[in-house]
Amino acid sequence: MNIENFIPLNTLVTHYKVELSFFSNLSELGLVEIQTVEQVQYIHQDSIYEIEKMIRMHQELDVNIEGIDVVFNLLQKIDALQKELVNIKNRLRLYEN
Question: Does residue 82 surpass a pLDDT of 90?
Answer without folding.
Answer: yes
